[in-house]
Automatic annotation (TrEMBL), chains A, B:
Keyword Hydrolase tagged: yes
EC number: 3.4.17.19
Family to which this protein belongs: Belongs to the peptidase M32 family.
Organism field: Humisphaera borealis
Residues engaged in binding Zn(2+): H271, H275, E301
Name listed for the protein in its UniProt record: Metal-dependent carboxypeptidase
Function: Broad specificity carboxypetidase that releases amino acids sequentially from the C-terminus, including neutral, aromatic, polar and basic residues.
One Gene Ontology MF term: metallocarboxypeptidase activity
Swiss-Prot/TrEMBL cofactor(s): Zn(2+)
Keywords: Carboxypeptidase, Hydrolase, Metal-binding, Metalloprotease, Protease, Zinc
Active site, renumbered: E272
UniProt cofactor note: Binds 1 zinc ion per subunit.
Reaction equations catalysed: Release of a C-terminal amino acid with broad specificity, except for -Pro
Length: 508, 508
């Protein structure tokens, strides 16, 4: 079949094909969701066959020469004349993806997915034994393949850019470094002051007995209250909490319940709800096209962190939810004042594990990983020296040193699975969240008053209009500029964290 | 790519392709399982897109000319010299499927699936209102398309054969009719005697309060005890109970719990467990090939009915399970003797709804449907006259007349969904089950003694060896002949039903 000479014809064919590829991807997501929630253990091998077949079919279709011809036919046409138009956005982002996918030879992709499976297994074993030496050869293999990937994809200044770009379009090692450097000093300073304040949050309150069934009920109520649509989604249980978009009308999230710790599941659900609200707010009629997809991991994370931290750990939020919490957990919350509760859920203290760390120190965990993974990729740091470099930075940024590598450089799954360039998106998300939230307060008015009344619709409506409904129309930086009139910057996040530190620890 | 001239090459390529097509089919089954268990309501439209894409990809690959060439290359070769060999079975059954699939024009397949969706909707609405006139035009449409299907597929004597053959390979309208005619008279006679006996089972026992959680626990215990492997399967809840084979190591069944009726869920689970045990016993190394697939719907049903009725409603079974039942339902079973319980779960009485009917009258419901659907397809009966013909036969076979069409000819979903030729497999399943069970008793020895000790492994082992592990090596009739030395016949089922009638109703 010759490529249509009419660019509109080409565009229509492209849209049809992209939508089918998206449906295939969504089927793979169903398989993955099932695998993590209900699949019986004996099905593991067959599920791998199912998943790899879907991945292969999807990859074959997305990298077909025909698709490249269709993209080219449209991008040389007047259809993309308006750079802010939907078609321009769809072509721009499809081109990005297409180029990246076609630049990677199938042999490299296969080798990476093979090594990643084995490497994750090795990491999991090594972490259990806290035996970094056992994992190190695998990390070397992963880095070797990732460097090849960088060469295939291409980059201007830094190989790291070739990896980062797939998670956060437009960012580079240089731009992230500039942002993070501006954040690091003030953060280290703030954490030091908090530690030095001598005040300690009554964490013990969160460690009382919180029955799982009551936790689940309460978390569902909160998710529903802030706007999660259970008619078009679910909440289940899994070992590793996640949120997945299975298609229009189907957004599912998971959590896990620890009866001896309240914060894990509850703020976890709020976090996943933030992701879910974004997914549920994407334009359904643009499904399968970039115009109907999320902007980046950083912007996605801005939504989850906003609901988890800026909303969920606010005084106003608990003004509304405290009575429900008391009803849900009468024993645990007996005699607990609103002030004590607020302090407990906003505890800040240096700790070893990123995923368990607080709103403030969390970013220092991320900065450290960004610096180290970039150095590893560039061969500025040998994997031999990783544990030492890790511990040294932990000491420098947080004033504590990991007693072993399991609680040090072996704690995260990311590197073993080849996700290098991913970590920065967590802190970018926090930065964007704070900037968006600051703007929302200006645009929407008294957010806190609304939260205290249990009214989250104004904030959600604002996010829907400004962010969710826009799909990938803008790049992350364009989006923050359009919405707030400012570029990405650490100011808003620092102001937010300092405000809380002032309130709770008397420092700033 | 030219077809390999070496038949072994051709066979290897065929096997690879069939296995991938099976994986695609198994993915479609995951989608369907999820749809019926956990999918949020809002996902319905997208799920339809996912399912139809998988169906299309699978159909395109299975009907490709290349596949036909590969089959032909093998079937003209010495590889199939041994008609009892695995390759012969794989080629024989793939040829059957391939011919059927390629004979149906895509336009007809699409029109059928479109009409079936609408027709099922119309049926569902019509049944609610018991308004047959509203459904009749849709039944006409379905019959019209089914007649076209028969013409495309081809048949010798009776168009009905073209439909029946896909569910029960080798059976024809004539052969089924002969079997059913031999069954009908004795069954009608037996039911008449039971009704005339004046004895009535203490059904009320089953209608006490049976808490759903206790039902689920007890049903799980029973499923596990008879051999269901929960490491390679699940039991969930759905509106319509079913069992689905999602691939090696993944067999899932569902049920629903009625707290005011014990028998529905419990015997439903035993029924689905029978299907599941068959699936779990298929040879995993032959997955995706006929040699690793089930023989027919009739043989599948023989497994479910055996565990539900021949095992699950036996005295010996309850000798073992009664203490567990008493522990699970202490209130409902207080003062209930084993005899009363045994009578209650073996109640026989004419009733209106097939799915709620007992082991004996069930077959008369099926016979009636077979006779009517065959007459409808051949235009021997007009859809105008269906309700009258239905009610007349209900009166003749069971001595009762439906008060409305909802409880008459509108009760089953099958015809609205185009499943004409499917009903006979239910009774064929009962016949095969009785024949197999009679033989198992001869081969394995004291089955009842084993059941009473809670030992179901000998029977399951026998089924595994004789039936499950054989895949589609033999046709249904060949299989029963090999196992029992006899052809399909109503003798064993009638003997079983008469034995119970003698024991409980004093008639035979």
């Amino acid at each position: 079949m010759p490529t249509p000479t009419d660019p509109r014809q080409a565009y229509l064919e492209l849209v049809k094909e992209l939508r089918e590829i998206a449906v295939i991807g969504s089927i793979a997501s169903v398989l993955s969701w099932d695998e993590q929630t209900y699949m019986p253990p004996g099905a593991t091998d067959h599920r791998a066959n199912q998943a790899s077949l879907m991945a292969r079919i999807s990859h074959e279709r997305f990298t077909s020469p025909r698709l490249g011809e269709l993209i080219a036919a449209v991008e040389q046409s007047p259809l993309v004349a308006d750079p802010q138009g939907d078609i321009a956005a769809n072509i721009r982002e499809t081109r990005r993806d297409y180029d990246r996918s076609t630049k990677l030879p199938a042999s490299l992709v296969e080798e990476m997915s093979r090594v990643e499976v084995l490497s994750q297994q090795a990491w999991s074993d090594a972490r259990k034994k806290s035996d970094y030496a056992e994992f190190r050869p695998w990390l070397d293999k992963v880095l070797h393949l990732k460097r090849q990937e960088c060469q295939c994809v291409g980059f201007k200044d830094d190989p790291y850019d070739a990896l980062l770009d797939q998670y956060e379009p437009g960012e580079t090692a240089t731009s992230v470094r500039a942002t993070f450097e501006a954040l690091r000093g003030p953060l280290v300073d703030l954490v030091g002051k908090i530690v030095g304040s001598g005040r300690v949050a009554p964490l013990e309150i969160l460690q009382r007995n919180y029955p799982a069934a009551a936790q689940e009920k309460f978390a569902r109520e909160a998710a529903r209250a802030v706007g999660f649509n259970f008619n078009e989604g679910r909440l289940d249980t899994s070992v590793h909490p996640f949120c997945t978009h299975l298609g229009p009308g189907d957004v599912r999230m998971t959590t896990r319940y620890d009866e001896a710790y309240f914060a894990d599941a509850f703020f976890g659900v709020l976090h996943e709800t933030g992701h879910a609200l974004y997914n549920q707010g994407l334009p359904k009629d643009q499904y399968g096209l970039p115009r109907g997809d999320d902007v980046s991991l950083g912007i996605h994370e801005s939504q989850s962190r906003m609901w988890e931290n800026l909303v969920g750990r606010s005084r106003a939020f608990w003004k509304h939810f405290m009575p429900q919490a008391r009803a849900a957990f009468p024993q645990a919350l007996a005699g607990v004042t609103e002030d004590a509760w607020y302090f407990a859920i906003n505890d800040v203290r240096p700790s070893l594990i990123r995923t368990e760390s607080d709103e403030t120190t969390y970013n220092l965990h991320v900065l450290l990983r960004f610096e180290l993974e970039r150095a590893l990729l560039r061969n500025d740091l040998s994997t031999n020296d990783l544990p030492g470099a890790w511990n040294e930075r932990m000491e420098k940024y947080l004033g504590i040193e990991p007693p072993d590598d399991a609680r040090g450089c072996l704690q995260d799954i990311h590197w073993s699975g080849g996700a290098i360039g991913y970590f920065p998106t967590y802190t970018l998300g926090n930065l964007y969240a704070a900037q968006f939230f600051e703007q929302a307060r200006k645009d929407v008015g008294d957010l806190e008053g609304q939260f205290a009344r249990g009214d989250f619709a104004p904030l959600l409506g604002w996010l829907r209009e400004k962010i969710h409904s826009q799909g990938m129309k803008y790049t992350p930086r364009q989006l923050v500029m359009r919405i707030t009139g400012q570029d990405l910057a650490p100011t808003a996040l620092l102001a937010h964290l300092r405000r809380k530190a002032g309130e709770l620890y008397g420092v700033s």
